[in-house]
Amino acid sequence: MSRLLSFAQRSATGQPWRDDESDDGSDERQNGWTRYFPLCILLALMVAPHPSLLLVLVNHYLRTLHEPITFLVHLCVSYTLTFLSFTSLAICVLRDPGPVCLDKPAREDSQVSARDEIGLREALMGPPGEAGDDDEITPLKWCRKCWAPKPERTHHCSLCGRCVLKMDHHCPWLGGKCVGHQTYPSFFHFITSITLFSAYVAYLAGTAFWWSFNNPTSVPDEVTPLHELFLLCAGMIFGLVVGSFMIYHIYLISTNQTTLECLSPFLLLRFLPPLPPSLHLSDPPMEHELSYTQRRLVRSAHGAVKLYDLGWRENWAQVFGWRKPGGWVPRILYGGASPGDGRCFPRNPRAQDMLQKLANALETADKEA
Description:
Elements: H1 2-13, H2 37-47, H3 49-64, H4 68-94, H5 109-116, H6 120-125, E1 142-143, E2 148-149, E3 155-157, E4 162-164, E5 169-171, E6 177-179, H7 184-214, H8 224-255, H9 259-263, H10 292-302, H11 312-320, H12 328-333, H13 351-368
Antiparallel strand pairs: 1-2, 3-4, 5-6
């Protein structure tokens, strides 16, 4: 209730409530076809190696080594990984990353203007039917930009101009869309497929180029080794670049974090127990209100406090788990979708004690200094 009163005081005095890092400024929405330009580049990069790949497979395994079975195996593996990459990419681009509000019938202009004139009391109480839920009327769970409830782990994206359930990050390569609760499994499936495809192409091209280097007189033409060298370099570069993202997201899934949560240590301030009034801090405290010593304490605690870490098995089940028979099929084809509604998440039972220790340390930090 103290946070609710603080929100009312700020609104009455005209001070903005910082319910998200991206809410400090105005939305910078991407409009027009320019938002799809990085996606077109991505598609071109995914298609570019295939002419060289086909040429290497035909010239090396059919014309030179005369191994049709090996040729078919490599062809099937290569284009299976390609198919998986395109299916998960399509899901990331076409599926909504995580709608906060359910679709409602279009309203008349009078109704829209009535919403714009909604009073402070109605904004604090939230939508009808949720007024009795004290957890839903706290300022941290109401987005003043979308003018809608803001569930746990939801963030407002200034580029998309909307809130996204369990937002991980905004990705310009996906047509300027966010990666959220409904698309994160497909995103991880995509970068994993690209990494495996790049590594497989690098292996194929590397072995073929090494054979051509040791048997120059048996090479069918002078162009084939150039294509092999091109595929080897491209596969190694993309495998290292995208593979590093894959390893990073393996860590995030294993510790039940999003990219925003991992890179934003001061998100912990939202979950701190109430601090004494003598510190003259907001409830919850803001980053700019903390002293240098207090900021260092928050940054150091961020590495240890994992709010949603339930163990690696349960963490992976929250992203790729399924309840229905045959649920593994969409996980293999395109990554599937995360179970649950993306609004409520169980917390680490040890997190509250660690947050209390952090609050105590913040209280005594400047006194000890």
